């Protein structure tokens, strides 16, 4: 790990105090959960539903309105509204509900263990690869599969191979098809291609994924276009573009939250005897926030506050904005860098990482690595 020089090393008592203060922020938030949080998420459910209906109606109406010269205006409006619905469902509704943020409501439609979202990947797979592996082993090399998603070399500590020369192109394709990459992430196709997973094992693992993929393809690319009758192609194209826009946005937000210039990765040894304070440090140093206001917060599923999300993944995400100033102040008191910046700035750093580490580079010298034991 190449530690950011803006992070001060903490003594064992300081680590304990750091964890206690951050735990207290969480406790205060939990103590005040209630009606406003329930109203918020139910408002998001309505927004998802009505923007989807509006988007699909506009797509259906685009060709009939062509005689009035309104085809492109109606079609584009339909695409944008449908994309908005898909983004809200993916980022602010599905992702946060699957984390169990609203289980306390006892609403069967908002249960983190049973909610199924509107993307090609299954929620069961996401709970394993994201909720468990990524949030438990955030940016730990060899344990967090989200580091480059098995396709990209984002950090110099990752071993370089000639394949990575193609990653600027691969990254663009991955961004456009992000939901499909997420869908197959847990299949570990590399192991299958290498003969480490049998065909029978792969068929068993692929079965639920294949069913979900088929359902999504039929819904967006067969059923709704067929319902449009003679306007099949206009609706099909609109659904394709809406899904591509959702994928691009999701890719951008997630990569900005994890792969900016100040983000760090860690060796497996760093989590040996990891204390609560060390865990908070690792989450902080592997995360990046986005500054942009309420609209960006909602559109990103509040992952504009990726630091707070990594600290408190089970707290309703609409609380992160009000928790952030207190979290930032605690980090400042303990000399820990709180990484935040505008979307253009953070995404520019992501692009730089993708381009730079496509080429061979030496891992940085390990300096003052994150403490692995208290005391």
From TrEMBL:
EC number(s) reported in the record: 1.14.19.3
Residue runs in coiled coils: none
Residue span, Fatty acid desaturase domain: 72-340
Annotated TM spans: 57-84, 163-182, 221-242
GO MF: acyl-CoA 6-desaturase activity
UniProt keyword annotation of Transmembrane present: yes
Protein's UniProt name: Linoleoyl-CoA desaturase
Keywords: Membrane, Oxidoreductase, Transmembrane, Transmembrane helix
């Amino acid at each position: 790990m190449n530690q950011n020089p803006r992070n001060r090393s903490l003594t064992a008592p300081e680590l304990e105090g750091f964890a206690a203060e951050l735990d207290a922020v969480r406790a205060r938030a939990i103590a005040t959960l209630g009606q406003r949080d329930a109203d918020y998420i139910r408002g998001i459910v309505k927004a998802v539903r009505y923007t989807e209906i509006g988007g699909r109606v506009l797509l259906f109406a685009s060709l009939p309105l062509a005689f009035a010269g309104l085809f492109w205006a109606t079609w584009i409006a339909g695409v944008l509204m449908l994309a908005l619905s898909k983004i809200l469902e993916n980022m602010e509704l599905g992702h946060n509900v699957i984390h169990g943020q609203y289980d306390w409501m006892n609403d069967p439609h908002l249960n983190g263990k049973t909610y199924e979202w509107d993307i090609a990947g299954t929620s069961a797979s996401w709970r394993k690869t994201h909720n468990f592996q990524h949030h438990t082993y955030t940016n730990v090399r060899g344990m967090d599969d989200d580091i480059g998603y098995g396709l990209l070399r984002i950090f110099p500590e990752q071993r370089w191979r000639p394949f990575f020369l193609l990653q600027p192109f691969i990254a663009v394709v991955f961004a456009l098809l992000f939901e499909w990459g997420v869908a197959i992430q847990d299949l570990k196709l590399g192991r299958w291609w290498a003969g480490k997973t049998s065909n029978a094992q792969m068929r068993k693992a692929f079965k639920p994924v294949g069913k979900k993929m088929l359902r999504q393809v039929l819904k967006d690319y067969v059923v709704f276009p067929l319902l449009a009758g003679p306007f099949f192609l206009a609706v099909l194209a609109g659904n394709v573009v809406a899904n591509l826009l959702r994928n691009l946005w999701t890719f951008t937000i997630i990569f900005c939250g994890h792969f900016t210039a100040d983000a760090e990765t860690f060796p497996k040894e760093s989590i040996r005897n990891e204390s609560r304070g060390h865990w908070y440090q690792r989450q902080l140093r592997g995360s990046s926030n986005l500054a942009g206001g309420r609209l960006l917060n909602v559109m990103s599923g509040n992952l504009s506050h990726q630091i707070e999300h990594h600290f408190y993944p089970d707290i309703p995400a609409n609380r992160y904005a009000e928790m952030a100033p207190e979290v930032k102040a605690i980090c400042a008191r303990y000399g820990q860098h709180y990484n935040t910046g505008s979307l253009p700035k953070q995404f520019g750093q992501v692009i730089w990482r993708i381009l730079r580490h496509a080429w061979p580079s030496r891992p940085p010298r390990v300096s003052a690595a994150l403490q692995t034991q208290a005391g």
